[in-house]
Every structure is written in structure tokens, then in C-alpha cells.
Design goal:
5-stranded antiparallel β-sheet; Cytochrome Bc1 Complex, Chain D, domain 2; SH3 type barrels
Length: 278
Amino acid sequence: MSPIRSLAVAAIFSFGVLVSSLTPAAGQAAAPPPHSPHPKTTAETIAAGKAIFAGTCANCHGVDGSGANGPNIRGVGATMGPEGVYARIRGGIIGTGMPAFTSLDDATVWNIVDYVMSLGHENQGVATGDPQKGKEIYEANKCGACHAIGDQGGDLGPDLSHIGALRSIVALTDTLNDPGKNLPLDSNLQERSTYPAYVVYRVATNDGKAIEGMRVNEDSFTIQLRDAQGHLHSVQKFDVKSIEPEAGKSFMPSYKDKLTPAQINDLVAYLSSLGEAR
């Protein structure tokens, strides 16, 4: 083979590898293009999304999301989060019957997202507390040190900006009483969407030290943990004796014995108002 032909073949092969690496495999969701941020969820946006869903998505997923020609999607919002649902609608899933709805504008897609996020939360409790009192309890207990609402607060725990659309009254109450029981699912790992986020791991090193933290990242050689104070720890795996999840443990404290049932109800009422789920 001539040198020129060899170079041409090599170039074609390299281009093919590049294209292959950039093209999602069958069964994977395509990455969505840059888009506008998620607007505040309201009863109106949920209603608008329901109307669009009925004409666009119900043939496959059923009017109430319980499935028809396609799968049941009730409750997927708790697993995927608003961004994950947006990505699925906008990008579709390669090699399946789920198309990419690229012709819909951002506002329309976000309305559908709001409706999908509300599915599975109907008839799961009604907020009976006082949202204003709940806000005062939230601030008095310094919940904002770990949680963000809008652009205010910390990032050690889940963002609560749309928590009212993500969690039912029952789920919010259960979390406040027993934070480690039903940890939220990680919406950032599409291929591992059932992986619980905020799990506390205990890493024991060969020299007898122990580090507790939430797993931020992990590869073949290292694991990165974030401890209860927000400090990051990177540990070389050849120095590690064991890495174990601590079932039922959470850095978030239980408020079962710290707040009265009435205060829990007020706090739940405030949290459920965030995102205007109902």
C-alpha cells in the first residue's frame, strides 16, 4: 500500500472512531442542547403541560402516565429530576420508540416536565401546616447551610428549589423523621438511574484511619468523598482496606425528636409550596 493511501485509510479510520465516540449508543439518551433554566412550577404550568402531554405523549405513556404503547412513567420525576426529564423529552432515547422532540420550544418542554414531575403525587397527602411558620422553622434550624432554594443556601444536600414538585407530602414527612430511609436517586447518572445519591460511605485505610463521606467521584485508582462539613477527601485505593456504604445513615439529622408533630407539619407545608406542586 502506498504511503499516501495508508495516510488516507488512517484518516478515515480516525474519523470513524471520533464519530463513534461522539454518537450515543442504542438505548442511551442523547445530550440535550443548551436551554433556558427551569421556570417556577405553578398550577398553570402543570395544567398546560397536561394538555400538551395528552396530544403528544399520551399515545405511548397513557393520559395519566401509567403506560400504553410505552412504559409507565409515573414517579420518574423523583428518579430523574426536572433536568433529567427535560433531557429525555428533548433528546429522546437512541434506538427506541422514544423520539427527540426537537421542534418544541423550551417553554413547552418545561410545561411537559412540570406535568410529568407531578405524576404519582396525586392523593398522597395534603399539607395541613402553616407554610409561613414552616419557613421560620426552616431558617431557625439553619437548613440553608446544606440546602439551596434558588440561588441561596449550601450544596451539601439536595437543592430544594422545586422539592414540592419532586416529593409528596408523605415523602417529605418521612424524610424529616428518618432521612436515611429513602434517599433520593441520582439524576446525574443516566445509566445508573437507580443509584441512591447522598449515601454515606466509610473508607478504612490500611494505616487504621477511617473517613466517612458521600461519594463525589470514583475511578479505578481513587475515590473522592465529601464529609459532613463539606470537606473533600481523595483517597488512593491501594491505601484502602475497605469501602462500605452505611445503610440508613445520613448527614441530615432526624427531626422526629427535635420538632413537634405540628412543627413538622408546618415545615412540610413550606417545603411542599416550593415549586407549587399542587
